[in-house]
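User: Let's play a game. I give you a shape written as tokens, and you guess the letters that built it. Ready? Here's round one.
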């Protein structure tokens, strides 16, 4: 045991000294493990392992549907391609169109309408966070003995200390609280003059780590340190939420080597960022093998939403982009890689949604789901591992009652069932219905990235007839949303509108408060962080009580 500890310590030291493990020298071949590889003599997993699997959930940021090698991208992703080929590719997999919604649904297993986060994202200056009465995935895993660690982007609110990752179920947290920031300086300006530092270790600003290291590499080093110091016989949950490939478009110079032929500067930078991310995931996989976790691990890879073409991402041949309810905004790259899978090397075309990870992972971890938790996710492990039918038949993509209303939307257009001015989208079996303003609707082919600047000349557009606020597609037959069937199948439209109406009856009020001036990092030592003080609230309420008492006494005197 002592020797193992020394080896682990040396491994951590070497990681800190030399950066993370090199791509060429340590890349393992298919089926190769830490036990079969020469030079890795230690056996850190000796002893009776836990029956509970190690869970590694990797969330990429803004990766487009096409932006992986096995979807035909010109960007090389050998690690993702290999892991997906040896695992199960999820080819009917859905997330939400933006950062906060996807993250909240992953960690709670609930639709946005059931957490109050159905509009936009949580802004840095908003006194808002994932509601504290929602049980989170790491909290449930801790109940059954898991060590829980988060590395990367939080983006679920931080205005009060209780909202921080370490208060929501994670034993440790290393990463950023906001939605984006500089990859090297970890600095973020929300608006002119409202700027601050955004890198945390647990509940404090991580000034000691401000060494100008590119965040993708820095987060990978942290993951390796966690794995080196943890006992692989005890179950671990690692949530790795990389910042890449979200804007700003930054990458170390060496990753541009294979992409100098891409003229479009945004696409070239994006390609370099994705190449670095692919290498990082290889190094995480190597660490899982080296330190004895791999054989009892489940690795899940997912993007949080579709790509943003103006920032280099591609969703071709899907329609639309990040921030929209077209397929390009919500259909994601995803796969599961694990020695525990029964049907390795397969493709799952069953309906899967990001809310499904909550019940699936808790069940795999031998945990219990409380009866009073109203989940929107399903346990889909047998669907993925054994190729069985998915228990899921529908997905509420969202109902956003405060998004800009469609000018021509009306109750009449919704057959008196639904106001089509409201932005909403729903999937039921093969059918998908959109109402209101679904967002940017172009198809952006690869040729659009052929020039130096953004070129929309290549984009395909459809100019809808005036007043259109309802669309219906058969996604199985028409995954690219080219043929609107709403006029041909009015009965199907009515059926899906009724389902929307049923969901809407269960919605909680939207949480989207105005800016709070106290959020300015200048008032918090130059750091983005919790600014709401419970004591202040108590003092104010006590003061108000005192004022109310005085008023009552005055009124009594007047009455006498």
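Assistant: Ready! My guess for every position:
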């Amino acid at each position: 045991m002592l020797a193992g500890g020394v080896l682990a310590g040396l491994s951590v030291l070497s990681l800190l000294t030399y950066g993370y493990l090199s791509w060429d020298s340590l890349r393992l071949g298919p089926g190769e493990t830490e036990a079969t590889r020469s030079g890795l003599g230690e056996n850190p997993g000796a002893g009776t392992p836990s029956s509970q699997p190690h869970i590694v959930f990797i969330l990429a940021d803004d990766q487009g549907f096409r932006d992986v090698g096995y979807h035909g991208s010109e960007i090389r992703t050998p690690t993702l391609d290999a892991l997906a080929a040896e695992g199960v590719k999820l080819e009917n997999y859905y997330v939400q169109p933006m950062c906060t919604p996807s993250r909240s649904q992953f960690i709670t297993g609930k639709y946005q309408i059931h957490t109050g986060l159905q509009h936009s994202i949580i802004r840095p200056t908003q006194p808002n966070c994932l509601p504290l009465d929602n049980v989170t995935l790491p909290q449930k895993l801790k109940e059954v003995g898991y060590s829980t660690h988060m590395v990367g982007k939080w983006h679920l609110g931080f205005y009060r200390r209780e909202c921080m990752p370490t208060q929501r179920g994670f034993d440790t947290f290393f990463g950023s609280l906001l939605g984006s920031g500089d990859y090297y300086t970890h600095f973020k300006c929300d608006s002119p003059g409202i700027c601050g530092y955004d890198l945390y270790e647990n509940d404090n600003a991580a000034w000691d780590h401000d060494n100008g290291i590119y965040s993708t590499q820095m987060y990978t080093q942290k993951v390796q340190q966690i794995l080196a110091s943890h006992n692989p016989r005890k179950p671990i949950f690692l949530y790795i939420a990389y910042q890449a490939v979200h804007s700003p478009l930054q990458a170390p110079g060496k990753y541009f080597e294979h992409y100098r032929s891409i003229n479009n500067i945004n696409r070239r930078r994006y390609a370099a960022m994705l190449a670095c991310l692919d290498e990082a995931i290889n190094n995480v996989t190597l660490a899982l093998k080296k330190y004895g976790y791999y054989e009892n691990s489940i690795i899940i890879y997912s993007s949080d939403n579709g790509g943003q073409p103006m920032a280099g991402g591609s969703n071709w041949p899907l329609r639309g982009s990040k921030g929209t309810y077209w397929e390009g905004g919500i259909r994601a790259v995803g796969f599961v890689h694990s020695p525990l899978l029964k049907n390795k090397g397969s493709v799952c075309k069953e309906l899967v949604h990001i809310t499904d990870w909550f019940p699936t992972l808790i069940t795999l971890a031998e945990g219990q789901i409380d009866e009073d938790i109203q989940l929107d996710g399903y346990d889909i492990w047998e669907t993925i591992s054994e190729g069985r039918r998915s228990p899921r038949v529908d997905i509420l993509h969202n109902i956003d009652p405060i998004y800009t209303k469609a000018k021509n939307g009306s109750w009449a257009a919704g057959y008196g069932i639904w106001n089509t001015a409201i932005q909403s989208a729903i999937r039921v079996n093969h059918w998908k219905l959109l109402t209101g303003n679904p967002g940017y609707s172009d198809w952006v082919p690869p040729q659009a990235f052929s020039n130096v600047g953004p070129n929309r000349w290549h984009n395909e557009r459809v100019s809808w007839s005036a007043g259109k606020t309802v669309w219906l597609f058969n996604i199985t037959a028409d995954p690219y949303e080219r043929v609107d069937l709403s006029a041909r199948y009015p009965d199907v439209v009515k059926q899906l509108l009724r389902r929307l109406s049923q969901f809407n009856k269960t919605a909680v009020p939207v949480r989207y408060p105005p800016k709070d001036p106290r959020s300015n990092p200048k008032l918090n030592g130059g750091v983005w962080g919790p600014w709401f003080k419970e004591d202040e609230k108590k003092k104010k309420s006590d003061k108000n009580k005192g004022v109310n008492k005085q008023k009552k006494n005055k009124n009594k005197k007047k009455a006498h």
